């Protein structure tokens, strides 16, 4: 999967993208990330990318010309990839949206800065708008990295283990239950014996029940959205009545 990022702060991307799993994903050819500096598409001496808002008021607005030129140069028109603007006004990013976006071979990500950007970018260039949460950041760079991270780990082969992302919290519609590693006892706190029993059936059942319990306790509304087995419903009934 190819990501083309358009930003005024290209220097913030390499430290994260060139570490750990995303670094390996790029080395193995699973993803490629090209970060483009919007400032390279200005034509004036001072490489100006923002201007005052029409109608007055505070804050600077990103000018349309360099953003259009940058995106059109890299992503041929008609667009060969969705052109996503990271903005607190976009669709709220979820695992479901990550699954949907991961089907694209290529995505363009535009990171907004300043107080906002010229509306014509939104109406005539952008094809989708994504928010990573109901709070406002100083720009779309962190949201773009979050999106790249969430999508990359869905690509087969990017995560090392055989289950990949299938058992993640949210992937199954449930939060994941607890995990343990050695030592079997730490400061008097023991690993649940079932995990050390070697009985795979029992372990699977315990994990399912812990996931149901945790979801019931923390995010009960998620239980309304998924298909539950008879066994699941009986277990939930038991904890509701306890
Ligand atoms: N830019 C600033 N805040 C943002 C948010 N919450 N999501 C996406 N882009 C943003």
Summed up:
With 242 residues, the protein is of the alpha/beta class.
Question: Layout of helices and strands, plus pairs?
Answer:
Layout: E1 2-7, H1 14-17, H2 20-27, E2 32-37, E3 50-51, E4 61-62, H3 64-74, E5 83-92, H4 95-101, E6 106-111, E7 116-117, H5 119-124, E8 128-131, H6 141-152, E9 185-186, E10 189-190, H7 200-218, H8 230-240
Parallel strand pairs: 1-2, 1-6, 4-7, 5-6, 5-8
Antiparallel strand pairs: 3-4, 9-10
Contiguous runs where pLDDT drops below 50 for at least 5 residues = none
Query: Which distinct ligands sit in these coordinates?
Result: adenine
Fraction of residues in β-strands: 15-25%
Specify the biggest β-sheet.
5 strands, parallel
Please write the CATH class name of the largest domain.
Answer: Alpha Beta
CATH topology of the largest domain: the name is Alpha/beta knot
Rounded mean pLDDT score:
95
Count of the separate structural domains: 2
